[in-house]
Amino acid sequence: MVNDTVVLVVDDAPQSLGLLCHTLQENGYTVLVARDGASALERLDLATPDVVLLDAMMPGLSGFETCRRIKQDAALQHIPVIFMTGLSDTNHIVEGFACGGVDYVVKPVRVQEVLARLATHVRNARAVRLAREAIDVGGHGVLVVDAKQRVAWRSPQAQRWLSAFFPGTDGLPRDWLDGGGEVAERVSVAANGRALVARRLGPVGLGEVMWLIALRAADAVAPSRLGTASLTPRETEVLSWIAKGKTNRDVGEILGMSPRTVNKHLEHVFEKLGVETRAAAAALASREGL
Description:
The protein has three domains: 6-135, Rossmann fold; 138-222, PAS domain (Beta-Lactamase, 2-Layer Sandwich); 228-287, Arc Repressor Mutant, subunit A. The longest helix is centred in the middle third of the chain and has 27 residues, at 111-137. The chain contains twelve helices and ten strands. The chain is an alpha/beta fold.
């Protein structure tokens, strides 16, 4: 069977996984083996697998800490990590997801289950990688921040710009992120007359928020009415749908609220934007690209 997928299996007793490794090879996988977390990280310096099967509990560097280190490396964080753990280790399963794992299998592993999970996660990871590569080729600055204000992913262009404007920091300044739910756009002007503009696009996953980063001439950056209006996330959503021509009833059905609540949000939007009608608010939102 033709298969160009590379699997890194990390277990302190790899002989117990002999059948699994043999079956993976029979199905065309290239199998790399490491006996502990430190060895796994050394392997990753030499080769980048498509997926990692990682024992949760190992002497020395645990599987959880190994996963954390993998996810801290921008060049490796796209690799899906599947934990291997005991049946009753609920706490281990929870910790595995918390440190960046995408799935788990119970030991002793069932080979066909592992094959099915590997195929799914490798396919999904490749689709995400292709999408991100398309962003990179386009030269777009994109940043994804998780619920704890940590950088989940950033495009190379975003990394270059952020490093130039905010050296020594990991992503956007904390005060920008802390106010991210209230402010749609942030601007930083450098001494060379260039301006970094970060625009909050909205949620893209469980607790994750996407920001679009752009570099412009400072004199070309006009004050944004929406960016300075301090709209709440809900008000921004309502305004966005109004700008698309939706009625209060339509917006209520989309966002799961009553038309009366939609109208109350709109009253706050009008006040913050300094407009008197929904048509004026919709025009402003469309003009500023909401």
